[in-house]
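Hi support team,

I'm filing this because I wasn't sure whether my run with zinc ion finished correctly. The job status page said complete, but I'd like someone to confirm that the output block is well-formed before I use it downstream. Pasting the exact inputs I used:
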Amino acid sequence: MHSALVKKNQIVSAESYDESIHGVEICCMDQKCKVPVFFVRGTVSLNAHFKTSGKGASVHKDACGFAKPLSFQDTVSKVGEYQESILENNTRQIVIRLSMNEIDPDYEKKTIERNPLDKEKKKPEPVEESLKTSKVTPSSISSLKAVKKLFTTVSPDILAGIMLSVKGQKIPISNLIQSYSEAHEALWSGNAEDVPYFVHGCIEQVTRRERVWYITLSRTDKGYFSLIVFDRHFNHFTYKDTDLIGQEVLAYGYLVKNDYHKGKQSTEMVIKSNQYIEFL
Ligand SMILES: [Zn+2]
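And here is everything the job wrote out:
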C-alpha cells in the first residue's frame, strides 16, 4: 500500500513518510482495519511503500481494501470510502483528463491535416514524470476499457487521489464512477454534477420499442435506472438481449431524471453505441 495512517489520524504517502516527523506507529489506512504496518524504503525497482508483516496483529482484516485483490465493483466502493480522507490530507493528487469524444458516433472529428513530423514530437512522458505516477496511472482516459483497467490494476489508495478533469472542472474520481444506485441517489438529491458519469450495475431487462430501446438495471426500492438507445443510434448498438441480460456492466453518459414512471423516481442515461458499455 502507498498510504498509511500515522499519529493524529493523518494519512501519509510512503514517498513523504519521515520517521522523525510521523513517528514509528504506522497503521493501515482502511478505517475498518487500522492494523500495524511497516515502512519499506524505495529501491531502484520498487517505490517506497507500507506493508503488513503477515504475523500476529499485522495482518489486514477481512473488510480491508488491502486484504485481497478486489473486484472492479469493490474497488469503486473502497475508493469512495478513502477519497475524502486522502484528499483532505493532501496525501497525493493525480489529475487525469477525461476525453471521451472518440467513442461518440455524433462527434465530428476535427480534420486537421497532421504533419507526419508532429507524431514524432508526441514522445512519451518525460522520465521524471514516470518516476512518480505515470507508471500506474494514465494522463488521460478516452474509453471505458481504460476505466476498467485503471480500477482493476491500480490500488485503491492511489485511485483515491485521482481527480478527473472534465469540462473545465476537477472532480474527485469517486464522485463520477459509482454504482448506479448511488448515482441515482446523487441525481435525485441534487448532488450530481452536470458532467457524464460512469455507473456500474447488473442488466435486468431489455425492452425494444420502435424508436427507443430501454436497458433496465436491477430495480431497487429507490426507483429505476435505464440505459436508453434512440433509433438514430440503433446501428451502433449491436448487442443482443442474450449478450446483455444478467451481465454486470459499466456504462457512460449523462444522468437524466424521468418522471414518467409515476410515483417512482427513474434515472436515464442515453448511450449511443457498443462503446458506451463495458462488461465487467
Ligand atoms: Zn488493512
